[in-house]
Automatic annotation (TrEMBL):
Keywords: ATP-binding, Kinase, Nucleotide-binding, Transferase
Stored Gene3D superfamilies: Thiamin pyrophosphokinase, catalytic domain
Keyword Kinase tagged: yes
This protein's name: Oidioi.mRNA.OKI2018_I69.chr1.g3033.t1.cds
Taxonomic lineage from the root: Eukaryota, Metazoa, Chordata, Tunicata, Appendicularia
Domain Thiamin pyrophosphokinase thiamin-binding: 172-236
Matching PANTHER family: THIAMIN PYROPHOSPHOKINASE, THIAMIN PYROPHOSPHOKINASE 1
UniProt xrefs under NCBIfam families: thi_PPkinase
Organism: Oikopleura dioica
Taxonomic superkingdom: Eukaryota
């Protein structure tokens, strides 16, 4: 297995600053899902760069009906087949950078993600994507993009779909701090054929090969505030976002 070591805290953007935020078309951000709604408000306030991909602008517009001109992104990009010209013109008048990207060989998500990573290469990216009822082919396409981007860029990309956070782990050793109170059930799914995986800190640790159709890990649980995952291939790490304890607790700080 690779010797390179990565250390991160997946839910860090919810409790800290210094990251970019990308809103996709179909994101279900509303008061019907209070956990996602309150998390979005924290992410919006704490992010340093904000970007909407195509119909993601519709999401922000609907949210802005209650608080006019609050959710104004730095940039909107896409082929604009899911957003009206009138809305684009309105946000352009606000001073928003409008970037039309008509190339049909890549999705609006991939094009927007590349743009963000090229503009703000030093910061991780937090993506809010389609809800749980979105089309499966769209969801698989998003995972495909996550894997593709992870092979080309160093900055971490976190994808929040409804209340499930995804992150593609490259081959190497990963130390993940899961100590914010938002972490629930955990999943590990190989997306690069067969992966040899070794974990510590989970209720059901893995030590051996994993492959879709043979062995994946779902509904796993952490037994430590820090877990380690060593893999020799690309691995999709998922963690459920849960409501943190009502009693305010400071997150531990790991020397990573």
């Amino acid at each position: 297995m690779e010797n390179e070591i990565y250390a991160e805290q997946p839910f860090a953007p919810v409790i800290s600053k210094g990251f970019s935020l990308l809103i996709l078309n179909g994101s279900k951000i509303n008061k019907q899902n209070l956990l996602l709604y309150s998390t979005f408000q924290k992410l919006w306030t704490q992010s340093s760069y904000r970007h909407a991909a195509d119909g993601g602008l519709n999401v922000l517009y609907e949210l802005d009906k209650e608080s006019p001109s609050v959710f104004i992104p730095h940039c909107v990009s896409g082929d604009f087949d899911s957003v009206s010209k009138e809305l684009i013109d309105e946000y352009q008048a606000y001073g928003v950078d409008i970037q039309e990207t008509p190339d049909q060989n890549s999705t609006d998500f991939e094009k927007a993600l590349r743009m963000i990573l090229e503009r703000v290469p030093e910061d991780p990216v937090f993506v809010i994507g389609t809800g749980a009822k979105g089309r499966l082919d769209h969801q698989m396409s998003q995972i495909h993009t996550m894997v593709k981007i992870s092979n080309e860029f160093q900055s971490p990309v976190y994808f929040l779909r409804d209340t499930s956070l995804m992150r593609v782990l490259k081959k190497g050793a990963h130390r993940l701090a899961l100590n914010t109170g938002y972490e629930g059930k955990i999943g590990l799914i190989p997306v690069d054929g067969e992966c040899n995986v070794r974990t510590t800190g989970l209720k059901w640790n893995i030590d051996g090969p994993m492959r879709v159709g043979e062995l994946i890990s779902s509904s796993n649980e952490k037994v430590s505030d820090e877990i380690e995952i060593i893999t020799d291939g690309s691995l999709l790490f998922t963690v459920e976002m849960v409501e943190p304890p009502s009693v305010c607790c400071k997150s531990k700080v790991f020397d990573i």
